[in-house]
Design a protein that fits this description.
This protein is mainly beta and 119 residues long. It contains 1 helix and 11 strands, in the order E-E-E-H-E-E-E-E-E-E-E-E. It has one helix at residues 43-46; strands at 17-19, 22-24, 31-32, 50-51, 57-58, 64-66, 84-85, 89-90, 99-103, 107-111, 116-118.
């Protein structure tokens, strides 16, 4: 892409770097598509919208509740419905797994937004 990526629109850090199609800020962790972040207020235009099972818009740092029991490979018991997951991070995952989180008792994993609802 560019030899010198643009500064971060949130914290104005000049040490941003390219990661695939995104520009990433190492100081605040903000990620954006370079074409959408050209203006000061334009960072929300290029970001994708992730919705939970009932249609609420999810954002990084939200807390969610699992709405149905999930099987986990390598575990005799899965994640029960009603399990609360705090501080989620939205990612471009594989096979629709667009939430990166840590589940108590299971550790770090990725979940689909269709099996959670905003707490």
């Amino acid at each position: 892409m560019n030899e010198n990526p643009p500064p971060c629109p949130k914290c104005s850090c000049e040490y941003t770097y390219e990661m695939n199609a995104l520009i990433v800020c190492p100081e605040c962790g903000h990620e954006w598509v370079p074409a959408a972040g050209a203006g000061e207020g334009g960072d929300a235009v290029g970001e994708r919208v992730v919705k939970d099972a009932v249609g609420n818009v999810l954002q990084d740092g939200d807390s969610v509740v699992v709405v149905k029991a999930l099987k986990v490979k390598g575990s005799p018991s899965g994640i029960k419905a009603g399990t609360k997951v705090r501080s989620i991070r939205l990612v471009d995952g594989v096979d629709g797994h667009d939430i990166d989180c840590k589940v108590d008792g299971f550790g770090a994993m990725q979940l689909k937004s269709s099996v959670v609802k905003k707490a």
